[in-house]
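Q: what sequence does this backbone want?
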């Protein structure tokens, strides 16, 4: 099983940028599609972006298309989420996960992103 540690969150003004990182342990990282989810207070956890095992295919929630970019470096066992043009509604705890048949397989501690207006 892949163990995951997210980092890179913080406080940023609207319109700013952040890059989240997710470091994975284990030798099977490159075998998994990966996803970034987020959960805002009082809301359900939602899928923000996903990426295929080799990084050749990505998908995004409509709310972040054109603003967020997911990428991965299998040599470093790391998946990234570059977030630009941030909005207050992007405020949430962000989690990465390995996707097994399209479903999340477990959660790390997450990283808080707060966007001020």
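A:
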């Amino acid at each position: 099983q892949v163990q995951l540690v997210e980092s890179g969150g913080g406080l940023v003004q609207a319109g700013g940028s952040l890059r989240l990182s997710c470091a994975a342990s284990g030798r099977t990282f490159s075998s998994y599609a990966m996803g970034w989810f987020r959960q805002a207070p009082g809301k359900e956890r939602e899928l923000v972006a996903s990426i295929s095992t080799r990084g050749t295919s990505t998908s995004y929630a409509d709310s972040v298309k054109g603003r967020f970019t997911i990428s991965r470096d299998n040599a470093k066992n790391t998946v990234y989420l570059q977030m630009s043009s941030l909005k207050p509604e992007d405020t949430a705890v962000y989690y990465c996960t390995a996707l097994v048949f399209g479903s999340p397989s477990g959660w790390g501690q997450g990283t808080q992103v707060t966007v001020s207006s």
